[in-house]
Known about the structure:
Elements: H1 13-30, H2 34-41, H3 52-73, H4 86-101, H5 107-121, H6 126-141, H7 143-148
Helix pairs in contact: 1-2, 1-3, 1-4, 3-4, 4-5, 4-6, 5-6
Amino acid sequence: MSEKKTPKPGQNRRKSRELALKGLYSLFLGGGDIKQIVDNLTEDEEYPRADANYFKGLLNGVAECVDELDVRIAPLLDRELSELSPIEHAILCIAAFELIHDVSIPYRVAINEGVELAKLYGGTDGYKYVNGVLDKLAAAARPDECRENGRRERK
């Protein structure tokens, strides 16, 4: 019987992404100060299980780049960006940030993590939509990596 490896406390990037999602949701709905949002989320019961540095870097990075990310995401949508739910928008921004700004994360991991967030927090079939958008974004943002992994580049 093989044992599953469990992340060390404070080293769970999935929890970091979940906390970043909560922060972006709050930011998209009510605006406010990103520093205050980060401070509030450090009080979340899941915070000790997250990779604190990754969480803060991800949330701050997405908040700083949200306009750029929206420009990259918008042409890949089948509707206006403003018609996305705040959850879908936040999930797409998190994964887009990882795809565009953090090449240390394989594109498949960035897509999968976005899909998993959508399964947990999005609408019934929202994960399918998120997957399709991120698949197109990965092909545009990382054409060489996608090509190396047997995917054809999409325009």
